[in-house]
Amino acid sequence: MDERGLTCYITPGRTSLFEARDFLRRAAVALDLHGSDREALLVVANELVVSAIIQETTEFRVGLVPRTDALRIEVWRPDLLCEDGASDSTCRSTGLLRRGIPVVDDLTRDWGLSPVDEGGSIVWAEISVLGPGPSLPSAAA
What we know:
Elements: E1 6-10, H1 16-30, H2 35-54, E2 60-66, E3 70-77, H3 88-95, H4 101-107, E4 110-115, E5 121-128
Antiparallel strand pairs: 1-2, 2-3, 3-5, 4-5
Helix pairs in contact: 1-2
């Protein structure tokens, strides 16, 4: 765990989904998530990760960033770019498989796709945290 949250780098292959799910289960314990908070994290993150794997991305990074009343799930994909002038809905559907959009819409308070300075884009989703919430020193910032 660093000052920003929890991060796991994954190289696509036949075990990449298992690696991501293992990381997410361990992260849920580290962040003291239970019940519906834990389930929302696992389901939403699974959709983001499966999209990255199915769309044959190169190495990707799964990150969890605690906020005061939410948890931000991020999947950085170096190969995913949203062209200048593209609509938000076009960018969002590029970063997530169509079957996953209703699931992510229902379980998150917001989600989207953002370019990053290091290249590529981050597909992100924020889930509201109902319990005591994730606690990292940066959560209050």
